[in-house]
Amino acid sequence: MKSLPITQGAPMKFRLPVTREVVVLLLLLVFNLLFTKHFWSLQTFNVNMTQVVTIVIVGIGMTLVVATGGIDLSVGASMAIAGTIAPLIFLNIDGPLGIALAFVASIAAATLFGVFNGLLVTRLRVQPIVGTLVLFIAGRGIAQVIVDGNLQVFNNDAFQWIALGKVAGVPVQVLLMLILVGLFIWIVRKTLFGQYLLVTGGNERAAFVSGVPTRRVKMIAYTVCGALAGLAGLISIGINSSADPNVTGLGIELDAIAAVAVGGNSLMGGKAWIGGTLLGALIIQLVRYSLLAHGVPDAAALVVKAGIIIAAVYIQRRNRG
């Protein structure tokens, strides 16, 4: 969606573009400040922010993939595989070595899922929705086979610090999310990869003719998406103190796509507004929170969420037309 022009000033100053998403988020905040009890508290802030952390982290990767004109339906399975492998390691290897290996091995496995998706899309030229559907189905099955479908329960403060720790009263997972948002905003705006990403999604054939390594760009996007999904999987199991391959990351692909769409990113490709994905996730979360806080059943909140997504896609199509 188009943003209002920003006056050029000192290069180090950051100014948030005034878009529909920003306006909607501000209206939701004002509404809750006025009409929702106990909204203005650190506890409420932490609750709402932690509810969107995994969605935003997965949504960052999804934004990159969507920017290339693709989609990744396997992110939930990547979360499940990472969340299954990590406890297997740190429950059997004590100390810092076990924790380090758990993080590295589980995220590496999810990254390989992303590489596999990238190869299907770039080398075999499989349509992204079909190619990633392979691991959407098989990936969770692999996670279930690894532990024979059993629940892994644990209590490991060192591992769970990434999910339950706090710095100055703010959850570590929220700080990690904001760091990743800032990092990928910089990557998209300031690096050559970011430029290649946008031109690949805008017009892949023209980009290829112009010398842009479109296959490599797509491979990187899918690989990063897999890695971020793996990280989100570790946060998810850390919160729950358990790893269940049947439920870890279940439905996250739809939430991530919704955040990307509501945040103003075109599902047709050519745009990668990471900040918009964060805004989209926050808008969806605040709408749900507002409804639940005022006694609206969760089922009805899901219907409203679907309506928001439809409205976002409609606005995108109207703007393109």
How does this structure look, described?
With 321 residues, this protein is mainly alpha-helical. Helices cover 72% and strands 2% of the residues. It is built from 13 helices and four strands. It has a two-stranded antiparallel ribbon. The chain has a two-stranded antiparallel sheet with strand order 2-3. Helix 3 runs parallel beside helix 5. It is globular. The N terminus is likely disordered.
Features:
mainly alpha, two-stranded antiparallel sheet, disordered N terminus, single chain, 13 helices
Helix and strand topology:
Blueprint: H1 20-35, H2 42-67, H3 75-90, H4 95-122, H5 128-146, E1 152-153, H6 157-164, E2 166-167, E3 170-171, H7 172-190, H8 192-202, H9 204-209, H10 214-240, E4 242-243, H11 252-262, H12 274-293, H13 298-320
Antiparallel strand pairs: 1-4, 2-3
Helix pairs in contact: 1-12, 2-7, 2-10, 2-11, 2-12, 3-4, 3-5, 3-10, 4-5, 4-10, 6-10, 7-8, 8-10, 11-12, 12-13
